[in-house]
Amino acid sequence: MKAAVAKLNQRLGEKLYSGAFLAPSFIGVMIFFIIPFFVVGYYAFIDSPIGQNFVFFRNFERVLGNLAFQTATRHTIMFSALAVPLAVVLGLGLAVLLEQKLPLKSQLRTFFLSPMMVPVASIVLIWEVLFHQNGAINDTLSNIAASTGWFSYDRMAGQWVDWFYSQWAQLPIVALFLWRNLGYNMILFMAALNNIPRDLLEVADLEGAGPWYVFRKIKLRFLSPTILFVTILSVINSFKVFREVYLLTGSHPYGRLYMLQHYMNNMFQNLDYQSLAAAALIMALAVGIIIGTLFVVEHWYGKDIEG
Amino acid sequence: MKKHHLSSLILRTAVAGFFALLFLMPTVLTLSNSFMSQAEISANYGVIFGSPAEGAYMSERVNLKLIPDMVTFRQFSTVLLMSPDYLFRFWNSVILVVPIVIFQVLIASLAAYSFTRWRSRWKEVLFFSYIILMLMPFQVTLVPNFIVAERLNLLDTRWAIWLPGFVAPFSVFLLTKFMRRIPVSYIEAAKLDGAGEWQIFWRIAIPLCRGALYAVAILVFIDYWNMVEQPLIMLRDPMTHPLSVFLSRINSAEIGVAFAVATIYMIPSLLMFLHGEEYLIEGITYSGGIKG
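The joint structure predicted for all components is written out below.
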């Protein structure tokens, strides 16, 4: 009896401790994320916070039919479709490069990683100096054009591209995105490359497999969970690019840089809860589908090496 | 054969050097330009940021220069002594970010200990929902945050940014991954020696995770030091905005000062990076692999 009570006490004590340690985080997450998320779900289906009439999917129809939302979505997808593959491939490229014999390897790693620790706001000035219509990129391009004669790129002839205010407007942002994110991806790939069993690579080497074959058939297979993770991470980060766009071009950017967060900001300013709620749910669903699909693809591709 | 090796080494080094240059250049240029005089900045970048003072020299083309003609600390002294605006915004940033770093790491390490020490079915579900929350973009999570802030009358106060920041799930995820690597035998041994949970947490779990805590603190710091979305939505008074938002509004007349401000703003995070790079790399490595 005594032992049973002691045991009960102990179990109770553990529950108490478990709850106590978790409580600050759990309560906070509940109050600031999970409960209001249900409120968001509720708002998405009513006509106004005052009337509170159930309107089925009308809010979703309104958001999806909204021209600004469509444009913002298109631009965000365009950006991600361009930036994410580059972030994955170049990140892997840098990791493979640093895996080779090279002088000053750890310094190089530091250099590649350092941009992630530079606040975007600090780098905005230089980005403008580089990509402005009269900026360093155009200047260099025209110097190359003039000295080689391969193509013509003349300021007087009006050939200089205004990078932030033309159909190319996403390129400087992609460049900034890659500059800031490649280091992180590279570190993840370096760790994964390190984890490939050495003996497997040695056997492949003895069997006379070429480096390209080894890379494709062995390394890529072992890297597939990391590729998945880096892809998800890059997709998430590519949605955050509003920051860069806002700091470079303000709250009313050139057409192609009008992103989903710009749309959301306008809705916040108008206090249009119904659109906000519906848009947030649509995006949550989209993110869920993207991540789910990536998981399925990776599972299908990498199943033969995972235990 | 030997020759082939050498030429490929040279090629690799050249490629690596090229990339290193690309990655370093923006930071280094910002640093070095902050030591230039206003006249030199105007001369170099007049074509971009607009006309300098009447009669001042302005180069016809943009002129990227790594080494200033004359090194001057004038811009820094202007920022630090004569423009309270910038310092005020810098202080806004500090007061927004530092409490978030401290409390997020503290709250998350408590939660991570609970997730590590007592596992149960519903906690796995909870942990999974933390991961989902962590993966959701701002566009999604800011809406619930905003609704709560409005209900609790926190809008236009720092609490609207602090409180969601204190409990953001990213640190919980990363620290749990670290703590699950502590051998159970350590904890069992401490338990047998009569240590309470609180003692095990402070004396064993926390010291063993010191590197992880540092890495998480660095990652949280840079994330919030960079914040733009939250202040734009939660703080409508521009006076309360952090420097990360304010820097983009500097007008062309102050472009020389702007480089100095930009430099000052990146010093804290760069110092943290140089000091804790090893931990940071370890932290990033552990963040890989959502599934494990």
